[in-house]
Write the structure tokens for this entry.
Amino acid sequence: MRLRHQAAIVCAVIIAMLSIIKNLPVMPLFHQIESGEIPHHESALLPLKGLLPKDRVIEYVSDLPEDEVKEAYYQITQYTLAPLLIDNSFEYATIIGYFSNKDSLNEFCQKYQAKVLQESTEGIYLLERSL
């Protein structure tokens, strides 16, 4: 009986380790961005941090064309605004937007009935839309 218990424990540990490995987060993609850009992006986000609601998830959107670069800026945004929850989906009313030009910002706002609440530097905006 003792051997069966030990075998069960070993199996449980192996299964737990495999599930951890499978669910490891994607490696940070910061190498996709020039190193000088990261502090600029962080400093542009910080003025908005105090304006963000602490009790709900905040959406992140960007008009950057390359997926890996867009994901890298999303990761920097998550890191900078922690412990706030930032989600890279399209389900929430409060939005942090990173837009490379005003035309794409205006297009986004018109398409999704969003309004700019606050503009920071470096093309970062606090937006809100009704759901």
Remarks:
- The CA atoms of residues 35 and 119 lie 24 Å apart.
- The first helix runs from residue 2 to 22.
- DSSP finds four helices and five strands in the chain.
